[in-house]
Amino acid sequence: MEVSVLDIKGQETGRKVALNDAIFGIEPNDHVLYLDVKQYLANQRQGTAKSKERSEMSGSTRKLGRQKGGGGARRGDINSPVLVGGARVFGPKPRDYRFKLNKKVKILARKSALSYKAQENSIVMLEDFTFEAPKTKEFLSVLKNLKIEGKKVLFVLPESNKNVYLSARNLQRSEVILASNVNSYKILNADVVVITEKSLETIDQILTK
Question: Within this chain, do residues 39 and 57 fall inside the same structural domain, yes or no?
Answer without folding.
Answer: no
